[in-house]
Amino acid sequence: MKLALIGVGQAGGKVVEALCEYEAKAGVDFVVDAMAVNTARADLAGLDRIPESRRVLIGQARVKGHGVGADNELGAEVAAEDADEVLSVVDQFRTHEVDAFLVVAGLGGGTGSGGAPVLARELRRLYTEPVYGLGILPGQDEGGIYTLNAARSFKTFVDEVDNLLVFDNDAWRQSGESVSGGFDRTNEELARRLGVLFSAGETNARGAVAESVVDASEIINTLAGGGVSTIGFASTAVNRPKRGLLSRLSKTADDETRDDGEAANRVSSLVRRATLGRLTLPCEVAGSERALLVLAGPPAEISRRGMERSRRWLEAETGSMEVRGGDYPMKSGHVAAVVLLAGVTDVPRVKELQRVAIEAQRDMHEKSATSSAKLQELLRSGSAEQDALEPLF
Ligand SMILES: Nc1nc2c(ncn2[C@@H]2O[C@H](COP(=O)(O)OP(=O)(O)OP(=O)(O)O)[C@@H](O)[C@H]2O)c(=O)[nH]1
């Protein structure tokens, strides 16, 4: 599946670069074009892979290239004011090759959390291709403003995209590591998961032909219907003894059956590990609306039986009848399983964010109710009326 990548804010730009790096290292081809949008000049200057012509500084008139300082309302305002500058760069993309847009942002800061939903809305207005979001949730110890930004931005972002893929920084921190300390490592992990998923079907680079190809429409259909998605991944080395021509010719039917049995068991256990291990956004697997399973590796290791068994197992685990699957043949010493769970509903971290958002909204209502009650009271008493109105004139 061919993507146009738009990174908003610092995290957005860095994750987009990690995806481009994965593409280059793995020798695959799924990024049509990539750009970065920021309110901070320094963050744009820190990027390596995205060319200057694809870096857009927004909000210069308001913040002079110094960033919005975690103010996500300001982030949203400047993105709306300068959306045309971003869209004119997207206009130069080879959009006829693009299957979907992916707007990437950290939801804790100001630029990404405010700007990404605004830009996603504009892209959906102008293009017929789906616009997906990749939202990164802040660590819980990053401070109240980060959590509040994420709580506010999350729902808006879900509403503005065709599907929101989510990565929770908290779930990926290693013990003793600060949130920022492990970003390079976690960005690489995230890029690997997304890279395998989105480059499946774009198999020309590795030559092999898949028996059951994962084409762009499989991914689009899995993500259709909106909501929130999460990704699981597991891989294992395959050290098959190299057989000479003679031993290959003398291979018996029993050998074949044993080999396939081993490969099928390996696939089954990989898919379980991918699904029940660490997801990009930890959640209950049961209740997922749709799922897609991609098996990547040497064709001989991608067992049909294992794939079918795993799909049935995923149907039982998720309770969904919409479980798609396909292979991604490649020359490799590893077999990998990627499981995309779409439309997940039982997500503790999202429930927590919803609670924060509701409380913040209640606080705002209470404050405005108190001030309007105070104003009414003042307006009822004649002398106070003067006090209340005077400052306005
Ligand atoms: N996974 C991951 N998270 C990151 C990375 N960089 C920052 N974050 C997280 O993203 C959130 C937002 O940070 P930034 O992207 O720096 O903020 P911004 O959108 O540029 O907004 P402002 O700096 O307020 O203008 C924070 O919760 C960070 O923890 C990264 O490279 N990887």
From TrEMBL:
SMART domains linked: Tubulin (SM00864)
Protein purpose: Involved in cell shape control.
Subcellular location per the Swiss-Prot or TrEMBL entry: Cytoplasm
Family annotation (PANTHER family): CELL DIVISION PROTEIN FTSZ-RELATED, TUBULIN-LIKE PROTEIN CETZ
InterPro entries named among the record's database cross-references: CetZ (IPR032907), CetZ_C (IPR048737), FtsZ/CetZ (IPR045061), Tubulin/FtsZ-like_C (IPR037103), Tubulin/FtsZ_GTPase_sf (IPR036525), Tubulin_CS (IPR017975), Tubulin_FtsZ_GTPase (IPR003008)
All residue ranges annotated as the Tubulin/FtsZ GTPase domain in the record: 2-205
PROSITE patterns: TUBULIN (PS00227)
Annotated residues for binding of GTP: 10-14, 110-112, 142, 169, 187
GO cellular component: cell division site; cytoplasm; microtubule
Organism encoding this protein: Halogeometricum limi
Protein name according to UniProt: Tubulin-like protein CetZ
Family: Belongs to the CetZ family.
Protein's GO biological process: cell division; microtubule-based process; regulation of cell shape
Keyword Cytoplasm on entry: yes
Gene name, Swiss-Prot/TrEMBL: cetZ
Superkingdom assignment: Archaea
